[in-house]
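Reviewers of the previous submission asked for a worked example of the structure-prediction workflow described in the proposal, so we include one complete record here. The input consisted solely of the amino acid sequence. No template or homolog information was supplied to the procedure at any stage.
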Amino acid sequence: MNLFSATAIALVFSSAAYAQKPSINVCTGPEGGNYQKAVFEVLKQAKERMDVKPIDSKGSIDSLDKLASGACDIAPIQNDAMKVYKQKYAKDAGNLEKAGTLYKEYVHLVCNRKSGIGRVTDLMGNKYRIAIGPGGSGSSVTWDSFILADKRYGEAPTVPLAGLRALEKVKMGDEVACMIFTAALNSAFVTTNMSEAGDYVHLIKANDGDFDTAKDERGVSIYTYDTIPTKTYPKLQDGSVRTVVVDALWVARGQFIDEKEKLYNWFLEAKNKASPEIRKMVGQ
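From that input alone, the workflow returned the following C-alpha cells.
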C-alpha cells in the first residue's frame, strides 16, 4: 500500500469518527403516550448535535428503575412518582436532578353513574373497587400517593386494569366502580373512549385536603388543584369538576450529568426549544 492510499484510508476513518454524534438514552413511557411524543419532539431539536435514543418504559416507576440501572440517562415522569418510588418501592434512584417541567397533568377519576359516588373521599374504605392501572403506571402512582397522604384510601380494593378494559368494567359497574387516569387535559383516551361512555360513567371531583400533605424533598406541595371547565368533556361532566393536578417533569441521572455535562446542556437546550410544541400538543 502506498503512502497516498494509507493516508486516504486514515482520512476516511478519521472523518467517520468525527461524524459520529454522541448519544443519550431517554425513557419514553408507554407507546403512543404524551411522554413518548414529547421525547420525539426533543429528538427533532437535538438531531444536529446528538442522537436521542428512545428507550421504551411502562411508566414513571419503570423509568425511575431504568434511571437507577443506567439504562436511561433522562426520563419524563410524574412528580408524585419520586415520592412513591422512594417510600413504597424502597429503591435508590441515585442522585437525580429535576431538569424542568413538561406540562401539567390532571387526575381524571371516572365512576359509574349509578354508583352514587360523587367525589374521591367516597372511595375511602372497602365499599368500592377501583381500576388503577398496572403497577408503575402513572395512574397507579397517583393512587399510591393518595394512600401515602391518607391511609384510608389503602382500604379500597383495586385492580391493575387500564384503558378500554377498565372502562368497560366501570360502564357495567358490578365489579369495578371507578377508574383513575392521570393525563393532560383533552388526552385522546378521555376525549374519545371515555366521552363515548358518557351515558354510563361520569367525571367526579378528585380534590381532598389531605393531598396537601404530599411534599417533595424541599417541602413543596406535589399537588395543586384546578377546575376542569364544564364544557371540556360535555358527555362526561355534570358541571365543572375540581381535581388534583401534578407536574410532569424531566429528570436526569446524576452520574450522566457529572460525566457528560456538555451533552446534558445540549439536551436542556433541545427540550427548551421543544417546549412550546410539547405544550401545544397537550393544549397548554
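Confidence is low (pLDDT under 50) at residues 2-18. We consider this example representative of the routine output the project will generate in years two and three.
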